[in-house]
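User: Second chain of the day. Same drill as before.
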Amino acid sequence: MSSFRYSAFRYLWLGQVTHAAGMWIDMVTLPLIVLSLFSTIEEAAINVGLVMFVRTMPHFTLGLFAGVFADNFNRRTLLVVTKVGVVFIQIIFMFVVFMGHLSMMWVFLYCFFRGATMAFDQPARRAMIANVVPQELYTNAMALSMGTVQATRIIAAAGAGWIIAWTSGVDRLTENDYGFEFPVTIILILYILALIFTYLIKYSHEVKNNVGQNKTTIRYVMSELVEGLRFSWSRKDIRSVVIMAACFFLFGMVFMHVFAPLFAKILGIGEKGLGTLLSLSGVGGATGAVFLAAINPNTKRGIWILVSQIALGLSLLFFALSVSLDSMLVVYFMAVVIGLTQAIIFPLINSVLMNLTPDHLRGRAMGLLSLDRAFVSLGAAIAGPTAAYVGVANGQMIFGIGCVLSGIILWVFGTTLRKLD
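Assistant: Same format as last time:
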């Protein structure tokens, strides 16, 4: 918990806590909205995948440019602006829900613009960690920051399922009825709190690139973008980390956003069960984050990442197999294991990139991870139709195998990654 000694990190963390809580309620609410609009599992599977595709697609188009902004403008100001945008978008979506005009068109529009704000939020927020804690605490701070997302999932995800079921009186996984007013209101309140905490962040150290130049011209932005890409491509160690992150996003991140809601439907566990499933994966995530923050590894992090990727793939495989055992206890236990392995991989990837990149290029390096998040879009676009045509469990097994194979291949051929400290 050493990073909490720094007040700027505490406010950054509090902003992350409240934002993550709203995000997890949103992650439960949106799939339930989609599932309520379609009567068959095949239609639902395709559209749940499309929702995730639309939400993460802006990372592909805007992620690298967001990194340029994070390196050339005040990172706190960028975070405040994006949080204002998030609040504005949530107000509009809340109005749509209260007026009873929910449709897939509104869901897609909401997801696209929320994804756009997240594309600018993440590079600035992650790069800012290096400005508010010393270098020896990068892994500790990143684990605490990422662990926040996992910890809030425990309460927010489970609470969202129970709130939706309680306020509507029906199970929207099986009946077409709307009752999402209360959760979208809670999400708005949490996003406002995140904006307030972010505004309170104060710190002094931040590298300013090219002071005095006009940074708003297309030529300047493109030159900065090219500089970041050239630097990253010239470093074999950075290339290997980015490739690893792409594999993680492609195979390992669609479980929560696509497969978990579909498993809840075919298992018949309802909204409360979906919330519990995501909450238990948050238990595993929080456990993994606390463990990582406590040991704060500064050596052999490449091996840690590769082993965790293989372990994640195996846990996804066993989760799919456990569905056929007719034992919810086993299903819930595997959800914990999935959250545990996910929570170890991503903070390590972020901390390694921060160590490898100088501060004036750090935003663009974090932007590369936003580009990698486009692979979540690709994974979601593949996962939905795959689940529709080969079955949800078989689709999950395919993605689990992809995780295992990518970890093994990068272990055998990615000597640079394996040797990274």
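The mean pLDDT is 79.

User: Great, on to the next one.
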